[in-house]
Amino acid sequence: MSETRGAIARLIDSFADLPGIGRKSAERLAYHVLRMSHKEAVAFAEAIRAVKEKLHPCQTCFNLTEGQQCDICVDPRRDRTTLCVVEQVRDVLALEQVGSYRGLYHVLQGRIAPLEGIGPEKLTIDALVSRVQQGVVREVIMGTNPNVEGDTTTLVIAQRLAGLPVELTRLARGLTVGASLEQANREILADALAGRHKL
User: Fold this and answer.
1) Tens of pLDDT along 8-45?
2) What would the CATH number be for the domain defined by 2-54?
3) Burial of 11 (0-12, 13-18, 19+ CB in 10 A)
């Protein structure tokens, strides 16, 4: 009996460790897993295992992929002269749901946050500069979140790209200051893309 209770407690603790999941929600999720059929539970566990084992950063843009390059980077219909720089993979997903942006992306894998020990060297800024130096990109859209860290990250990137033949723009401030891209709805993100301005 104690082993069973221990297994349930570990499952609840695992769900509770997820962002945005409180203790009560974790308990509901754990008991939902218990009610699943064995086949459903194994498929759920397999989906988690596959994500951890098969997905890795795209060698070009650092979006997640199972191959060398992500689906966006290899899509010949995308506009290769426009590059939207975002903090996280989930920001790519948010902008893709809008459906109006047809350029490429560059995922920084974070934002500059000195108080957390995250400096420019821990991001993919060097890879971004290399991509722009290849001469294909004509516009870099800064899609960092509208907060202090996002603005600091944008400033550092603008300094690194200074002197290169590229137009640097930023998403319009229809986004609430302090919000994140993943929390914005499709209409706000579409307006922010359409209303981007020069830096």
Assistant:
1) 899 999 999 999 999 999 999 999 999 999 999 999 99
2) 1.10.8.420
3) middle
